Amino acid sequence: xxxxxxxxxxxxxxxxxxxxxxxxxxxxxxxxxxxxxxxxxxxxxxxxxxxxxxxxxxxxxxxxxxxxxxxxxxxxxxxxxxxxxxxxxxxxxxxxxxxxxxxxxxxxxxxxxxxxxxxxxxxxxxxxxxxxxxx
Length: 135
What we know:
31% of the residues lie in helices and 24% in strands. The radius of gyration is 14 Å and the shape is globular. Helix 1 runs antiparallel to helix 2 and helix 2 (43-63) packs antiparallel against helix 3. It is α+β, with helices and mostly antiparallel strands. Strands 1-2-3-5-4 form a five-stranded antiparallel beta sheet, covered by helices on one side. It has three helices and five strands.
């Protein structure tokens, strides 16, 4: 993480942008970002954010042609996760495969854990999927 983005454990809005190659790397980025925040988010908030990051990044990699950016941001009350991918297609809910082979649980889980979820066209092409969670 860049020193200019998270310095001195500040309490104003901070952010970090990266482009992890895997959901595992994205989860690591979220945990590291959360560890730098002051005051620290609750353990439950961090776990929720890590899960949302994992689902959004996995969906971008699996269904949207890849990941072009992951932006993590925080202020005193929220954690914001934005995943940019090259697809213009809006995420859609599909029947869950309860046998574990076909997925279908991630998008409803993201919408359940987040205060708000928005999908907007990105100025750089594709779309931004943004989830805002309670800090």
